[in-house]
Design brief:
Blueprint: H1 2-9, H2 21-60, H3 67-74, H4 76-109, H5 113-125, H6 128-141, H7 146-154
Helix pairs in contact: 4-5
Length: 167
C-alpha cells in the first residue's frame, strides 16, 4: 500500500515535465537574438563603422593629434557655423515641443472628429517627401526634362513618351 502512494507522487517521466525556466529563457533569448541580428548588423555596418572611421580620421589626419578639434574651436567661421547650428536645433526643438505636446494631449484625450482631424493632419505631413519625389519624377521624365534633352543631344530621335502612358 505504501508503494502505491509513493508511486503516485513519484515524478513522471522526463518527457512529461515542462522544461526548466532557464532552458526556456535561453532558447527564447537565442531566437530573439537571431531575429534582431540583421538589424544590429545593419546598424553596425552602416552607422557605427562610418562614424568610428570619421572619429579616427579626425584625430589621426594628418598626424595623431587634436589639431583638428583645436581649429574647430578657434577659427571664427567654424565657431559661427557651430553656434548657428546649435541655435537652430534649439529653436526647432522648442517649436516641436510647443506644438507637439498639446496636439498629442488633445489627440489622446478626445475621441471625436477633432482627434481624427489632428491625426489626419499629422499623417499628411509624412506625405511631403512622396509628393516632392513625384513632382521630381514629373520634371525628370517630362518633355523638357533631362532624359528628353539627352535623346535630342545624342541624336536618338524623338524622346519616348515616358509619362501618362498605360504601359
Amino acid at each position: 500500500m505504501r508503494e502505491g502512494a509513493i508511486a503516485s507522487i513519484a515524478p513522471v517521466a522526463d518527457r512529461d515535465l515542462p522544461r526548466p525556466l532557464s532552458a526556456r529563457r535561453s532558447g527564447e533569448t537565442m531566437r530573439a537574438g537571431l531575429l534582431v541580428a540583421p538589424a544590429v548588423l545593419y546598424l553596425i555596418v552602416l552607422f557605427v563603422v562610418p562614424i568610428g572611421y570619421m572619429l579616427a580620421l579626425s584625430v589621426t589626419d594628418p598626424t595623431a593629434s587634436l589639431a583638428n578639434y583645436r581649429r574647430l574651436f578657434t577659427v571664427p567661421l567654424y565657431l559661427a557655423v557651430l553656434f548657428n547650428t546649435f541655435k537652430l536645433a534649439f529653436i526647432v526643438t522648442l517649436a516641436c515641443l510647443a506644438l507637439g505636446y498639446p496636439l498629442a494631449y488633445v489627440m489622446a484625450r478626445r475621441n471625436d472628429w477633432i482627434a481624427t482631424l489632428f491625426l489626419v493632419a499629422v499623417g499628411m505631413s509624412f506625405w511631403t517627401g512622396f509628393i516632392v519625389r513625384t513632382y521630381a519624377w514629373l520634371v525628370i521624365l517630362g518633355r523638357r526634362g533631362p532624359i528628353s534633352a539627352f535623346y535630342a543631344f545624342a541624336g536618338l530621335g524623338p524622346p519616348p513618351q515616358l509619362l501618362f502612358t498605360s504601359a
